[in-house]
Amino acid sequence: MLPNRIWFTGVPGSRWSGIAQTLEQLPGMNTSDRTPKREYTHHQFNGHKGAYFGKGMEFSADPSRVDQAWTTQDGCKLIKSHEWIDHVDQLPKEDWKILVYRPDQSSFAWWHEAGGFQIGYPNYSTYKNSANMLAEIIRTNQLILEYGCQRNAKWEYFTGAWIQENFNTTLEVPQTFSDILVTLIK
User: Fold this and answer.
1) Tens digit of pLDDT for each residue in 43-64?
2) 10, 52, 129, 143: least CB-packed within 10 angstroms?
3) Domain locations in the chain?
């Protein structure tokens, strides 16, 4: 059974949004945060869907105020922010957390390929320039790995088998990447 919330984090360019969209297909997920304004498409990908939380974004990364993004409160909300790792001690213990890890340079390169500062949603202007973005990717990835280590996380590839093992549901994963790892912390 799914919790009311899953706090979902990864660095810009980690391809975490594609993972999020796959997870939001799970039975019982609440996607009422999706609007045309909260969507960004690049290449053949529907890159971003739904609310994103963080500095300079539509909603701040304030764990106590996340419900405002959804039009209904039924079902499990996948709450996306690059910044949850900075607030991990404030997140409710009964909620689940999913961490996505992709190496720094691969994430940085993909973020630029996906549009970089031209990404229409969410807003990345608070990072100001590429040097700041890379520094933030490095810092955040380090915190993600440290938290995973503290919690004895089991890092695995994002596959249909991972979904089956963790959610007892069969879902097709469009593509598995050899440089992306995920972990679920309950």
Assistant:
1) 666 678 999 999 989 999 999 9
2) 129
3) 5-185
